[in-house]
Each structure stands twice: as C-alpha cells, then as structure tokens.
Write a structure and sequence with these properties.
It is a single chain. This protein has helices at residues 54-59, 62-71, 88-96, 109-114, 126-131, 140-165, 172-189, 196-210, 217-243, 249-254, 260-290, 293-301, 306-316, 348-351, 355-358, 387-405; strands spanning 74-77, 82-85, 101-102, 323-327, 331-333, 336-338, 343-346, 410-411, 418-420, 426-429, 432-433. It has 435 residues and is of the alpha+beta class. It has a single domain (87-342, 358-372, 380-433), classed as Cytochrome P450 (Cytochrome p450, Orthogonal Bundle), CATH 1.10.630.10. Strand 5 and strand 6 form a beta hairpin.
C-alpha cells in the first residue's frame, strides 16, 4: 500500500514530518467507501494500515486497536504519518530505550501547544534535571500528609455543589470531576489569583493542542491564548516563590536553579496532564462501576478495594491514549524494520488491552484481575511524576467520598453520556443520579 504521495515516505527524497503534519480528517478508503483489505505492506517491508479511520478513533478507538494488534502491532499509518505501536511488548520496549526511541521528537505538538519544550519531550539527563525538583513534593508521604487534607476539603466543597444541583440535573464531569481536579491542581502547583474555570480552560486548550495531529489552526489559536495568559501569571509567581517558598510544586521549581523558561514549560505541562487525567479518572471509575454493579457492591462493602478500582479503571480506559517518540537510528521493533527519524505513536491505551500480557479478559473491567504492570502512567524514566497524587486525590478521596455522600450513585440513563478523543480520551459529559 502507498501513502498519499504515492510512495513509502522513507523512499527516495520523501521526508516524513512529525506530529504537526497537516492531515486530512477523511481517511484513505477503497472504492465505494469500503475499507481496503488489511495487512498490506510496501516494497520496503513496512506493514501499512491505510484502513485506519481517524474519525472512528475519536469515537471509539478500541475496535481499531484490536485489529491493529491482531494484524500488525507495529504499522505505518499514512493518515497519521507515523508508525503506531499497539501491543504491550512493543510499547514497553519503546519506553525502556530512550537512546533509540527519543522523547525529543521533531515538531512535537506538546512543545507547540505550550510554547516551549517540557520535561516529557526530553531524554535523560535533561529530563531528570527538570523533574528532580518536584520529586519530593510528589512522593507518597508528602501527598498523604501535606496534600491529602487539601484534596479532602476540595472534594467536600464540590460534592456540596453536586448536592445542590440534585439527582435530576447533576453532571459528574461538569459539576465535580473537572472543578475538583482543577482546584487540586491550583493548590498543588501553588497558583494564585486564578479561578477553577480559568485553569480548566487552559488545561483543555493545552490538551487539545497536544492531540492536534490534524493541525487545526483554531486549536493552535486557543493554545496560544492560554499560553500567553499562563506566562503572564508565571512572570509574577516565579519571583514570588523565590522569596516566599512553600510546599507547592511551583515553589520547588522556582527554587531549583532551573531557567525560568524550563520552569514555565513544566508548569504548563502540569496544568495539562495534572488536570486532564485526574478529571477523567473520576468519571471513568464511576462509569465502570455503574456498568459493573456486582463489583460496585463489593467495593462499597470493602473500601480496601478502592485501590484496585482505580488501577483497573486507569488500565481499562486510559486517559492518555497515545504519545510520540522518534527513532534516532534505524532499528527493528517487533520484527518490523523502522528507519531513523521515524515518528512513533506509542498507543498505551491499546497496549493496556493486549491479551498477550493481560490474558483473554484484557478487554474487560475486573477489579480482581491478577496484578500485571500496565502503561497508563507510562514506564521507565518517563513514568508519570504525579501518579501518586492521582491515586490519592481520586482513587482514595474524590470517588470514595462521592459514593459515601450519594448512596446509589450511578449513571442517569435518562440522559446521554459523551466520550471523546483517542490521543487523550475521556467522558466529556456523565449525567448521574442517586437515591
């Protein structure tokens, strides 16, 4: 199969642009709108999955992931201008080898979205230098003792808002998950004089930009506006925290000796992921338990199971679906020869459904699943720095408190839920009711 240019992108003088390549939203199709036969390969031996429908990925990516894992778990996808890696073994290999699979990708949408290169688009030692200052803030002991009471206060505040709306009107994403994740982030970062809605807007703009593989200019305009606002605030707060240090992440960054540009980039990175993933985990957990009522009853009887609910939900419906890498030299991954300079999409949401790693029930939600490592928070040197904060603030506080406050909390089947995305994926609306 060929690309739209009529040849493999690595033949002759053809060059592959990275994440920001402008791609059509309409996937390549065969005659009559039928998907071509799968598993084709070009002359150089790269499996080509030209049947991948980008619009279908945004609606529900898991059928596409299952087909890719079965037919070509490492495949060139011309619509995305990159190789997608969709099985667990391949994604894990990429995560463990930053010398070949670099996080410092050409034209990264993440760098474009926040206006600078953050730690997640760096390899060691530069990555570890950026990350080191906030490690003490995000360790389990600090999260439990310093931030746990803050997270509980925030959860109680927004649960009261949900109660005032009542079981006929409440939307768990709009009225609880998003504002509580935003307020937790404001406190943990140490942002001042900003509203929950403002930080939420920034986060959504950055996340949209990071997932903007179709190069939509209106999305870049939103990112640029959010970056300008955040940068103006940081111009005031970084000097403030150098004179008035506290336990916040921004204080740790400001007093680390890192250049101001590095501090600003990593704060904006935290604003994106530090709200997006916790927000979606609130709704993902409630959605999963509402659709598996037997498991819901078990955890309500035995609160020790909440940790398993969080871990299984983040594996089953991973908020971060895919992130990029770039090959620094020619290599072989899962039997596929990949050229130097190739864009790689590490599809961890697919890897987390791989039956070869998780067993035949990998596509099912099961809080009693035998423990196996998953990739929802990444792995290796880029393991998410905030994973303990997410597990505590959401898995141990926000969701258990919601069930305690609202007996019988469940989906409201009279109103429609709404999912969106695949690079980042979550519920954008989750109407709920209770007894």
């Amino acid at each position: 199969m060929t690309t739209r240019a009529g040849q493999c992108p690595f033949h002759g003088n053809a060059e592959m642009n990275a994440e920001t390549t402008h791609l059509t939203a309409n996937p390549v199709r065969g005659n009559g709108g039928e998907v071509p036969t799968p598993g084709s390969q070009d002359a150089a031996g790269y499996p080509v999955a030209d049947w991948v429908d980008v619009a279908a990925l945004a609606t529900d990516p898991y059928p596409t992931y299952a087909r890719l894992r079965a037919e070509s778990p490492v495949a060139w996808v011309p619509q995305l201008n990159k190789f997608l890696v969709t099985n667990y073994a391949g994604c894990h290999t990429v995560e463990q080898d930053q010398e070949i699979f670099s996080a410092n990708v050409s034209g990264a949408t993440m760098t474009r979205a926040i206006g600078a290169q953050p730690m997640l688009r760096k390899d060691d030692p530069e990555h570890s230098l950026d990350r080191m200052p906030v490690n003490p803030v995000l360790r389990p002991k600090s999260i439990k003792e310093v931030w746990g009471p803050v997270f509980e206060r925030n959860a109680e505040t927004y649960l009261q808002n949900v109660a005032e709306l009542g079981p006929e009107e409440a939307d768990l994403n709009r009225d609880y998950a998003a504002p509580v994740a935003s307020q937790n982030l404001i406190d943990l970062l140490g942002l001042k004089d900003v509203s929950v809605e403002q930080v939420r807007r920034w986060s959504h703009a950055f996340i949209a930009g990071m997932g903007n593989v179709l190069n939509d200019q209106s999305i870049w305009d939103r990112c640029d506006a959010a970056t300008a606002e955040a940068d103006r605030l940081l111009e005031e707060l970084i000097p403030y925290y150098r004179q008035n240090p506290d336990a916040s992440m921004l204080s740790a960054f400001a007093n680390s000796g890192l250049p101001t540009s590095n501090v600003a980039a990593n704060v904006k990175l935290t604003i994106s992921g530090g709200m997006n993933e916790p927000q979606h985990m609130v709704t993902n957990m409630v959605w999963a338990l509402s659709n598996h009522t037997g498991q819901r009853e078990q955890v309500l009887v035995d609160p020790a199971l909440w940790a398993s609910v969080f871990d299984e939900a983040v594996r089953w419906q991973s908020p971060i679906g895919m992130y990029p890498r770039e090959t620094t030299r020619e290599t072989v991954l899962e039997g596929v020869h990949i050229p130097a300079g190739a864009g790689i999409g590490v599809v961890v949401a697919s890897a987390n459904h791989d039956a070869a790693h998780f067993g035949a029930s990998a596509a099912e939600f099961d809080i009693h699943r035998p423990k196996r490592p998953h990739l929802a928070f990444g792995s290796g040197v880029h393991l998410c720095a905030g994973h303990w904060a997410a597990k505590t603030s959401i898995g141990q506080i926000a969701v258990p408190m919601a069930y305690k406050r609202f007996p019988g909390l469940r989906l409201d089947e009279r109103r429609n839920e709404r999912w969106d995305g695949w690079v980042f994926r979550g519920l954008t609306s989750l109407p709920v009711t209770w007894n």
